[in-house]
Amino acid sequence: MPDLLTWLKERAKDDLLLWADQLSAANRFKVSIREVEGTALKNGLLPARYQRNRNMLNLDDQLKLYNSKVAVIGCGGLGGYIIEELARLGVGTIVAVDPDVFEEHNMNRQLLATPDFLGIKKVAAAARRVDRVNPAVELLPVGLAFGLDNGTRILENCHVAVDALDSIAVRLELAEICQQLSIPLVHGAIAGWYGFLMTQFPGERTLQKFFAHNSQESGLEKHLGNPSFTPAVVASLEVAEVCKVLLNQGTPTRRRCLSIDLYDMEFVEIEC
Q1: Which residues contact 92 (CB under 8 A, 6 or more apart)?
Q2: Order of strands across the sheet with 256-261?
Q3: Which of 26, 76, 187, 263 is the most buried (most CB within 10 A)?
Q4: Burial of 260 by CB count in 10 Å (0-12 exposed, 13-18 middle, 19+ buried)?
Q5: Helix or strand or coil: residue 27?
Q6: Residue 259: which of 215, 212, 203, 220 has the closest Cα?
Q7: Whole-model pTM?
Q8: Is the predicted pLDDT of residue 22 greater than 60, yes or no?
Q9: Averaged pLDDT, 192-212
Q10: Which helix (H) or strand (E) holds 88?
Q11: φ, ψ dihedrals at 48, nearest 5°
């Protein structure tokens, strides 16, 4: 009887492995889809779901993403889109952190908010969504409020943390813990037509400087509203930053903040 790798190689089309064959392999060899995907990527086979990535990401890049662990702090407007895009990109492990349940006012903009998920924990909905979108991705749900008391444990062994919070105070706590653990932090925020993006590496304090004179508990979104499109735009920019950090490619928004104005369609860099 052939082993898993031999069986996969026999069925690959050139170097592409179809979803049907991944599923058959998991059933035949009594292993998870995640294990099938890992075996494929480590041995030069690309799951066909990622074939449109390959003109910008090579197979080694895809394997790096598979072996990466990213924490998403907040699973609402920004977080839902971030989790979705990370899963579709092929990031292997996602830690999703949020204490809340879905309410009706979330449904205008939050990707994971649907009528059948009202009253359901956001992290539980995220786990169900990722299982449907990409079963090779492991989502670890943490249904707790992030803070100084548990942040170190939550971010353990993560390669990048992603800020999808709506509290400036908690955002600054996240930045401090990332500093302590030497974890890069991708920050995003939204308010009405507007958004902000920055990436902070260990040893930098860009986020702390940016919010140094702002002690509000909540961000401007409480006053300017939250439409459907702003979180989708900013979340996508955050995922692009995560991808660059994980693969050590491109130019992240270090020591600067990208100010996003979708009303007048202006993107302005602010030095920090």
Answers
A1: 34, 38, 65, 66, 67, 68, 69, 136, 137, 138
A2: 138-142, 93-97, 69-73, 160-163, 185-191, 194-200, 256-261, 266-271
A3: 187
A4: buried
A5: helix
A6: 220
A7: 0.95
A8: yes
A9: 93
A10: helix 77-89
A11: -60, -20
Q: How is residue 57 written in tokens?
A: 């990401």
Compute, in degrees rounded to 10, the torsion defined by CA atoms 185, 190, 195, 196. -20
Mean pLDDT of 256-266: 97
**Contact at 8 Å (CB) between 188 and 213?**
no
Question: Which residues lie closer than 8 Å to 230 by C-beta, 6 or more apart?
Answer: 77, 109, 190, 191, 192, 193, 194, 195, 262
Q: Which two tokens stand for residue 216?
A: 């509000």
Query: Tokens 């003109």 sit at which residue?
Result: 55
The rounded distance, in Å, linking the Cα atoms of 63 and 59 is: 6
Alpha-carbon separation of residue 28 from 21, 23, 41, 132, 217 (angstroms)? 10, 9, 19, 21, 53
The amino acid present at 90, given as its one-letter code, is G
Residue reference for tokens 């409480």: 222
Q: Which residue has the tokens 């995560």?
A: 242
Asked whether the predicted pLDDT for residue 237 surpasses 60, the reply is yes
